[in-house]
Amino acid sequence: MSNPYPNLFSPLDLGFTTLKNRAIMGSMHTGLEDRAKDFPKLAAYFRERAKGGVGLMVTGGFAPNVQGWLSPFGSKLSKPSEVKRHRQVTDAVHEEGGKICLQILHAGRYGYSPLCVSASNLKSPISPFKPRALSTKGVYNTIKDYATSAYLAQQAGYDGVEIMGSEGYFINQFLVTRTNKRTDEWGGTYENRMRLPVEIVKAVRERVGSNFIIIYRLSMLDLVEQGSTWNEVVTLGKAIEAAGATIINTGIGWHEARVPTIATNVPRAAFAWVTQRMKQEVSIPVVATNRINDPVVAESIVADGIADMVSMARPFLADPEFMNKAAAGKTHLINTCIACNQACLDHTFSGKRSTCLVNPRACYETELNVTPTKQAKRLAVVGAGPAGLSAATTLAERGHTVELFDKADQIGGQFNLAKQIPGKEEFHETIRYFNNLLLETGVNLRLGEEFTTNTGIDESFDEVIIACGIKPRDLDIPGIDNAKVLSYIEAIQAPDRIGNRVAIIGAGGIGFDVAELLCHQSSDGITSVSEFNREWGVDEEYNVPGAYTVSEPSAPARQVTLMQRKPEKLGKTLGKTTGWIHRASLAKKNVTMLAGVEYLEINEDGVLYRTGSNAPQLLACDSVVVCAGQLSQNELYAQLHASNIPCHLIGGARQAGELDAKRAIREGFVLASEL
Question: What does the similarity note say (predicted)?
């Protein structure tokens, strides 16, 4: 069978070396880079992805000196004594026929360290430390440190380096007047401000010679005020090429930018248009990046001449076999990245080891493994939500006979609600993946069947796994049985039942999701790149510096008020890297947010409530949606336990709280790998 993606899998000749395909596994900081003792785990992580067929990989960022640390004693390559540990990584990759570059990343004012430095002593809005302005001599020394780090990477066996010049890190901070207030030869005119990256690339090329890959991550869209103009970006791109770069990778947005760049509400390949513009300006290969998670999209980018290569980072967290499956025509079995950020970026920025919501083995390759069972059992899994699907398919893969029960007529559980939320359409992909994996692993799927103890069916299994999820929590508020009150399940399944003025009780993740849904004219989110750009203020014409302009959000479909009992900021418990997106999105839709609410009554006119010692107020509304938490559905577990039938609780059936697919899928996988 011919390869269905001939352009994506065409080799790329770099002159001194050839990449076997056009896919780059982009840089991701996993947390394994920060300690020497974790390098065996890091090596296993990269080995699995090299074996999976990706053409070139880039490590998480390593600082060229202590001033460039992301965090104290974090990843760094500046001394010969640090080289040996990296050989574990490069040897593992090369044994599988892969290639790998080390990313050199100086955090600048983004560093969580009192030693951090920048172009000027201007504090970042996302870091607690104010940087020291680097001296003129310090700039020259830092350039040497980049060259030294690249040389050490070469000694460690890396095929090249990526110089991180985007996302608002150190190099970016020198490029723009937003953060560069210097008056020496590294400040003032753009010619002076762009000297730093050019001199770094020159110094690196001189140190490593000609037969070594240098990728430069160029910030093509700063998406902040006082960012680079398009002419400046082009000028820098051409200078970087002349200085000796092999490849130009695309960087999108500073970390402090108020435009989503990789979250699930960003359309696929939303920023490929700017890479296409740069491709017309330089002659070395350019790489498109951000929200590319599908081989069809990747193929079209290369085939249409938008870019020479495609960088996919998190898709290789989700499925290390992405490229091999695509080449074999098994796209339906790719475990697609849903861009949720919950286990990757949220973990990184919380100081935890990264992993993946849909693939809990990611970054745990030496600890979580699926091995054939020594004693095959007949097992029942009750509940075909994320936890049950994870458990059932893993058990079957190991050789157990598995029957998966769900009284619903489709698999997916709460994911069938999540996929209806505008901006969360990617959740369809996880359900698609598990539907195909059930067939692939031979799980006997029994939909429309309720597993009960009074039929005797429970006695025909060796063990039973209970994963039947949650049910919405009932509230004790006068008038809660009013016809205008709906559960969040009813609201998501039938939004046409909701009136024009809506009160949402409960402002956790579900409350925010329901508000997003009800503010849209339809259940479809922003699907076009142009619509996304208008909504978030991205200037496609690039007429303003940073391409960041006034947003033009669409009018909300309803007047929505979010209410919560807690007196804290609404959305405080949302994801670390996505919470601000949800809050900003609802602010654009004029959603009112009320905290510290005491609910007094629901009546025909609306919700009577009080905040603090204030007098009662009436929130006039046509509909009330309750999003006030969940309870576990684990009654079956108690019944089986009483009958001495071996059983296990996982997912929402074990612990409700906020709906947590990350925990549910991991629990299902871990249990199944041990039974």
Answer: In the N-terminal section; belongs to the NADH:flavin oxidoreductase/NADH oxidase family.
Residue 95 resides in a domain? yes
- Mean pLDDT, rounded, of the chain: 95
Among 169, 542, 548, 637, the active-site one is 169
Provide the pairing of β-strand 559-563 with 592-594.
parallel
Q: Are 508 and 566 in a shared domain? A: yes
- Is residue 51 exposed (0-12), middle (13-18) or buried (19+ Cβ within 10 Å)? middle
Q: 644: pLDDT confidence band, cut at 50, 70 and 90?
A: confident
CATH (domain of 178): 3.20.20.70
29-33, 103-107, 642-646: which has the minimum mean pLDDT? 642-646
Q: What is the residue whose two structure tokens read 């890297």? A: 577
Say how many C-beta atoms besides its own lie within 10 A of residue 365's C-beta: 19
Distances (CA, A) of 612 to 72, 254, 567, 593: 43, 39, 9, 15
Sign of CA dihedral 255, 256, 257, 262: positive
pLDDT at 362 over 80: yes
Distance CA 384, CA 445 (A): 9
Based on the domain organization, do 311 and 335 belong to the same domain? Answer: yes
pLDDT band at 652 (very low <50, low <70, confident <90, very high): confident
Residue where one domain finishes, among candidates 348, 369, 400 = 348
pTM of the predicted model as reported, rounded to 2 decimal places: 0.95
Whether 277 and 398 share a structural domain: no
Whether 191 and 47 share a structural domain:
yes
The answer, yes or no, to whether residue 659 has pLDDT greater than 70, is no
User: Is 105 part of a structural domain of the chain?
Assistant: yes
463 with 490, same domain? Answer: no
Q: Give all strands (DSSP E) within 571-634, no chain letters.
A: 592-594, 597-603, 606-611, 617-620, 623-626, 630-632
Residue that has been written with the tokens 């692939």 in this structure: 440
- Sign of the Cα torsion 403, 404, 406, 411 reads negative
First-to-last alpha carbon distance for the chain, in angstroms, is 38
Q: Are residues 260 and 235 in the same domain?
A: yes
When pLDDT is averaged across residues 224-235 and rounded to a whole number, the result is 98
Let me know whether 118 and 195 are in one domain.
Answer: yes
Other C-beta atoms closer than 10 Å to the C-beta of 377 total 16
pLDDT for res 1: 64
Residue 432 belongs to domain with CATH number:
3.40.50.720
Whether the pLDDT of residue 657 is over 70: the answer is no
For residues 184 and 322, membership in a common domain is answered with yes
| SS3 category, 118 | strand
**Kindly report the CA angle at 539 between 536 and 542, in degrees rounded to 5?**
155
Is 599 in the active site? no
How many domains are contained in the chain?
3
**DSSP sequence for 309-346:** EEE-SHHHHH-TTHHHHHHTT-GGG--------TTTHH
What are 423-464's pLDDT values in tens digits? 999 999 999 999 999 999 999 999 999 888 877 777 789 999
CATH classification of the domain holding 600: 3.50.50.60
